[in-house]
Amino acid sequence: MAYQLRPGADLSADFRRILGEQLKHAANRLCDTDDRGRGVHEARKAIKRCRALIHLVDSERASKPLRKLEKRLRAAARSLAGARNAQAMLETLTRLEEHYGERWSVNLLQGLRAAFYGRKQR
Prior knowledge:
Blueprint: H1 11-30, H2 36-57, H3 64-100, H4 106-121
């Protein structure tokens, strides 16, 4: 979900519109129970777009309210990072299992999967 600043439009209004759309998208994706890992990933991307937008309109970091908002968005993304990293590890482990299969110890694979799944649940 990309965003676009409209030529000739009020920058302040576009900023609020885009920020609202991205934050709503992030919240909706976090509520997606069908694919939680994908939802976390998409929410983090939306938060990243919000932070990029803030940096675009306030590159000198002069606005205290925007600095505060950016700090909160960074903290929110960081809080989701563990779940996303664990999901990525599980996906990688699945691909490694498919590729190497029987060459790996079953106990090793089960141990890794349990550890990554435990991280994902936190």
